[in-house]
TrEMBL record:
Its main location: membrane. It comes from the Bacteria. One of its GO terms (biological process) is copper ion homeostasis. Keywords: Cell membrane, Ion transport, Magnesium, Membrane, Metal-binding, Phosphoprotein, Translocase, Transmembrane, Transmembrane helix, Transport. It is found in: Cell membrane. InterPro entries: ATPase-cat-bd (IPR021993), ATPase_P-typ_cyto_dom_N (IPR023299), ATPase_P-typ_TM_dom_sf (IPR023298), ATPase_P-typ_transduc_dom_A_sf (IPR008250), ATPase_P-type_domA (IPR059000), HAD-like_sf (IPR036412), HAD_sf (IPR023214), HMA_dom_sf (IPR036163). Residues 296-378 form the P-type ATPase A domain. One of its GO terms (molecular function) is copper ion binding. This is Copper-translocating P-type ATPase. The chain crosses the membrane at residues 168-187, 199-217, 229-251, 257-276, 398-416, 428-447, 709-731, 737-758. Residues 5-53 form the Putative metal-binding domain.
């Protein structure tokens, strides 16, 4: 069993011996202790939090925040004027995060702050001239939190609507139950307030039907129009049958037909389950900020052929363009997967999707419109909805036919044999009511939520409701290479060369590499994350293809450049004298070999599709012991998608991180992406992951197996429960009171069953892990 990171609690890669999963977690851990905020770990109480994103370690552009703070609304607080601003925030995970953010905010002199962890939003206020929002954002970034512009996505509106429906139906259900209980406890029909109680219960059920029942009815109707049989169909049937019977019973004075409390409570439970199911997914979707590499949409729409435009450092070139500057350093990693940067001279082509890897903005002339560009095609490619489960549809179709026939035939039999139409209607409605998948509708969301929580412990975050079903249908796992199988940055071989530098030199090197996208710069900057920023004001100059330099306040010239010989990959100089030389190598993510072996043991095929050169892909494949037919090189985005389409796409998961993987995402059954801070794919993937370990995939599949087991057992329980209660109803023994009692009991039973399955499987895995550690220890001894 792997050791757990001292900061985030996710498994530590076998390649690290410092007790942390990545340099980001190491940096934040030191920051918390340095500022006396280690109480964060007591509040976390052993709960796993997301690993610190590498994006949080790098220089961010806060121009948007500076502009927003100048136009923020002014409000009156305690007889004084304050300015308030709402922003989105990345990195929240638990109450400890809120405590930490509030401490940092109070230390910097803010007046009021509200953190909405569910929505990933932060609203704070300050007195003008006494607080700097940009400095606050920079301080939060040092602790691993990133601020971004407020979200404008429409997903929040749908979530708010479901929350409102659930809250209102909860109130209606309480009313309906409160005013139905007296009848159950023997209130006589001629009691003075009996009709008033019935009226309140009927009104509550009607409102619950209109507010909450309409949610399921609309979804069932849309599904039927599309030729799909959805689980909301039997739910809608049960709701309508119970409500119709209740109205008939109320108007006719037949107490045996009144299910008003059942209707309201059933709708509330179903909405509550659906809300739990969607909240976890919505929370993960809101964890990430908008990709800063892509310019604002309003600017993109205005691009025309011949128009001049500017690309900031770290941003993508949106359209094919001609470079106007004398030189520029760009990265084609998004396009073809090659991590090395290259240079362009004035008049040369800048392809759409190339990243400005330099420290300065570049200027270019557009050769096409935004709609014609390759990057636009990749960005607007969208994954389709969850694939239809034909087996479930057939099962639901058969189930509904049986339920309807049983209810109608049972009702007719009672009518013909007893000549009591009210008893016949009660039997028919009782069959429809107890056949509703109430227990299944409550337990399934819980299974999804527990599975998502288990995945988060391994740094994986689920964005798609249908992911667990898809993961059990896989036959192959296809990986991109650069940034996916390999680390985002090359590994510094001689890390001790950094430790030997004095504090002044470390700060100078940190300043040189800050904000530069060259792989060497990114690697050095991440390694120096613990070094305090000396706030050098001197501008870093870049000579494209040669290196970086700046002159400090004391007149010393610092530079990071290519060496004259092949003994190193980069040299760090002071006034022309070499004070350190650095060597780098591309490295696989931790535990990549073990992960490939684990996936093969599951019977899955493993493939690599890369746009990188043959030699680089061959070297990676050799380390992973892949055969020649198990990897492809020099592929375009279209080539990747075509390969997946031709090789069992309905049973393939694709994992990639660049824009060149976007079309492959859409071709595969499901897709995942690492969070690099320079890719939009995590915003469209079925799941994304943080940290540097590759072992997440087999663990995710293990969670999917547990989820499938829980679903099957809950389904078996629900079928058994429905058969027993349906027979009871057909025999005429199921009264509204018994139905009202059995409904919450069955739901509680299925919830307990789901929790027990996940707990027992987790305990078994922990036991197996401890046995493995014991065996390894004994062997070592």
């Amino acid at each position: 069993m792997s050791a757990l990171c001292q900061h985030c609690g996710t498994p530590v890669p076998a390649t690290r011996s410092d007790g942390f999963c990545c340099s980001g977690c190491l940096h934040v851990h030191h920051m918390l202790h340095e500022h006396g905020l280690e109480h964060f770990y007591h509040l976390k109480a052993g709960q796993a939090v997301p690993p610190v994103s590498a994006q949080a370690l790098r220089e961010q552009d806060y121009e948007w925040l500076e502009a927003a703070s100048k136009t923020a609304e002014a409000v009156r607080v305690n007889d004084s004027t304050a300015v308030e601003l709402s922003v989105s925030i990345q990195g929240l995970s638990c109450m400890a995060c809120i405590w930490l953010i509030e401490r940092v905010f109070a230390k910097m002199g803010g007046t009021q702050i509200h953190v909405d962890m569910t929505r990933g939003e932060l609203r704070f206020g300050w007195e003008p001239g006494k607080f700097s929002p940009v400095e606050f954002a920079q301080e939060l970034q040092r602790f691993g939190y990133l601020l971004g512009a407020p979200r404008t996505d429409a997903g929040g509106a749908a979530d708010n609507d479901l929350e409102r429906r659930t809250g209102l139906c909860g109130a209606f259900a309480m009313n309906a139950m409160a005013f139905s209980l007296p009848a159950y406890f023997g209130m006589p029909a001629d009691f003075a307030f009996a009709r008033s109680f019935d009226l309140v219960a009927a009104a509550s059920a009607t409102l619950a039907l209109l507010v909450g029942g309409s949610y399921f009815a609309m979804r069932a109707w849309r599904a039927l129009q599309a030729g799909v049989l959805h689980i909301d169909t039997p739910i809608t049937l049960g709701i309508l049958a119970a409500y119709a019977g209740s109205i008939i019973g109320w108007l006719c004075g037949e107490g045996g037909l009144k299910y008003f409390d059942f209707v309201a409570m059933f709708i509330f439970l179903m909405l509550g389950g659906r809300l739990v199911q969607q909240m976890a997914v919505a929370r993960n979707r809101r964890r990430l900020l908008r990709d800063p590499s892509i310019p604002e949409e309003s600017l993109l729409r205005e691009l025309r052929a011949g128009a001049e435009f500017t690309v900031k450092a770290g941003q993508a070139v949106p359209v094919a363009a001609k470079l106007e500057d004398a030189h520029a350093s760009i990265s084609l990693e998004w396009i073809n997967g090659e991590s090395d940067t290259c240079t362009r001279s004035a008049g040369q082509l800048l392809p759409s999707g190339a990243l400005n890897a330099g420290t300065q903005a570049l200027h270019a002339i557009a050769l096409e419109t935004w709609r014609e560009s390759t990057l636009c095609t990749l960005l607007e490619a969208r994954r389709g909805g969850d694939s239809r489960d034909l087996r479930l549809e057939r099962l639901l179709r058969g189930y509904l036919i049986v339920v309807v026939l049983a209810g109608v035939i049972g009702g007719l039999w009672w009518w013909l044999s007893t000549d009591d139409w009210t008893r016949a209607v009660q039997v028919m409605i009782s069959v429809f009511v107890v056949s509703c998948p109430c227990a299944l509708g409550v337990a399934m969301p819980l299974a999804d939520d527990i599975a998502a929580s288990r995945a988060e412990r391994h740094g994986v975050f689920v964005r798609s409701l249908g992911l667990w079903k898809k993961l059990t249908q896989l036959s192959q796992v296809v990986f991109d290479k650069t940034g996916t199988l390999t680390l985002e940055n090359p590994v510094l071989v001689n890390a001790d060369a950094l430790d030997k530098l004095d504090a002044c030199a470390q700060q100078a090197l940190r300043h040189l590499t800050s904000g530069n996208l060259h792989p060497v710069s990114r690697s050095l900057f991440d390694a120096l994350a613990h070094v305090p920023d000396a706030s050098h004001e001197a501008e870093v100059l870049e000579e494209a293809g040669h290196g970086l330099s700046f002159q400090d306040a004391d007149g010393r010239m610092w530079a990071l450049s290519r060496p004259v010989d092949a003994s190193a990959d980069a040299v760090f100089t002071r006034d022309g004298a070499v004070i350190a030389a650095y060597r780098f190598r591309d490295a696989l993510r931790a535990e990549s070999r073990d992960e490939m072996a684990a996936l093969r043991e599951r019977g899955l095929q493993v493939r690599i599709l890369s746009g990188d050169r043959e030699a680089k892909v061959a070297a990676t494949a050799a380390q992973l012991m892949l055969r020649r037919d198990e990897w492809q090189h020099s592929l375009t985005p279209g080539d990747k998608a075509a390969w997946i389409t031709a090789h069992d796409a309905p049973h393939t998961v694709y994992i990639g991180d660049g824009a060149n993987d976007s079309l492959a995402f859409d071709a595969a059954l499901c897709a995942g992406s690492p969070v690099s801070g320079r890719s939009f794919l995590e915003h469209k993937a079925d799941f994304y992951f943080l940290g540097h370990s590759m072992r997440f995939m087999s663990r995710l599949l293990g969670i999917a197996d547990t989820h499938r087991l829980a679903v099957r057992l809950v389904f078996a329980f629900s079928v058994t429960y429905n058969v027993v209660t349906a027979i009871t109803a057909l025999m005429g023994h199921l009264s509204p009171l018994l139905a009202a009692i059995l409904m919450p009991l069955s739901s509680a039973a299925t919830l307990s069953l789901v929790a027990l399955i996940f707990r027992s499987r987790t305990a078994r895995e922990s036991s197996d892990g401890m046995e493995a550690v014991t065996v390894q220890t004994n062997l070592a001894a």
